[in-house]
Amino acid sequence: MTVEGPRSTTPDVVDVVALGESMVTFLPSVPGRLADVPSFDRAIGGAESNVACVLAAAGHTARWVSRVGADGFGDHLVEAIGAYGVDVSAVRRDPDRPTGVYFRTAGDRATDAHEVAYYRAGSAASAMSVRNTDLDAIRSARVLHLSGITPALSADCLDLMRELTAHRPGRPLVSFDVNHRPGLWREEDDGARVLLDLARGADIVFVGEDEAWGLGGPEAVRAALPEPELLVVKQGAAGATAFQRTVGADGAEATHVASVPALTVDVVAAVGAGDAFAAGFLSATLRGLPVRERLRHGHLTAAATLTVPGDLAAPPARDHADRLAALDDDAWGTLRLGPGWTQAEERAEEEVRTP
Ligand SMILES: Nc1ncnc2c1ncn2[C@@H]1O[C@H](COP(=O)(O)OP(=O)(O)O)[C@@H](O)[C@H]1O
Ligand SMILES: [Mg+2]
């Protein structure tokens, strides 16, 4: 006779857990005013799940933790994100609240101006809380990736973010992309202030210069946010600067600063570049690469997304990205990447095999 012991519910440790809301996105079949668009194509949107999908595509183990409705849109998100190889077993279904959706008009190429109509208030994901999310599944990771979108969703989501950015023994490396979306915050909630406080609790922070509390350049941002071991200030098409706190053999603390110019890219669509940058940087972090290389991998992965129409692209193959990341500064500075660049190398190799 065998006696069954209690089933272990300890989830597998993965490289990365990304937590946040994802939505079904509807992209217009024709350009023009939202009022005039007759039909839409379906896609998926979600800053954190984008990061999980790119990391899974880059060969890491990734888990997405979220809440979706018990509806067809929820099925689609779970299935589509799962199809990237992301573990979706900790995504909860909410029987009472719907999956969030949004509609977008085609962006104007020159200005990237587009209209967005969100239907996310009261969504299943906005009901995420400390009580109803699987904290073990969230913490069983080497890196936990979060963003400043989640705390804007509800008071419960903000509490969850405070818990996840609190210094608990044995917590994963906490990565936080500020992603300040003023439209999601009520003015009286002072989103910028809340995001700065949450960022103080993270180990790695990504922030765009244009959303960095009106502080100006990277040095000023670091002065206002000295706590994270690593702070990355993104300067769009110009480049990115990282500040890393290091401890010398004598125990003295120092700050290592690395600045890497962005690549020259023939941009097809700008959406999703920030998520791709974070994924590239985190992938290189998981591989233990030095900060300068992590920045280069961030730029390269962003360039993969910038050169496709959607907001999610397969990252460059690891060998290819490693070769480009190892270029000297002059060669890096003259590199120019356009649509199809991630496959260029594969095609060249195929031509060698089948002349
Ligand atoms: N025009 C561009 N040319 C080259 N790289 C770019 C360009 N725009 C963005 N990037 C890359 O994408 C990264 C993220 O850009 P950012 O504007 O911060 O994105 P987001 O606003 O989505 O957070 C940059 O750090 C850079 O690597
Ligand atoms: Mg961003």
TrEMBL record:
Protein origin, superkingdom: Bacteria
Keywords: ATP-binding, Kinase, Nucleotide-binding, Transferase
CDD domains given in the database record: KdgK (cd01166)
InterPro entries: PfkB_Carbo_kinase, PfkB_dom, Ribokinase-like
MF term (GO), any: ATP binding
All residue ranges annotated as the Carbohydrate kinase PfkB domain in the record: 15-313
Pfam families, alphabetized: PfkB
Family in the record: Belongs to the carbohydrate kinase PfkB family.
Protein name, as recorded: Carbohydrate kinase
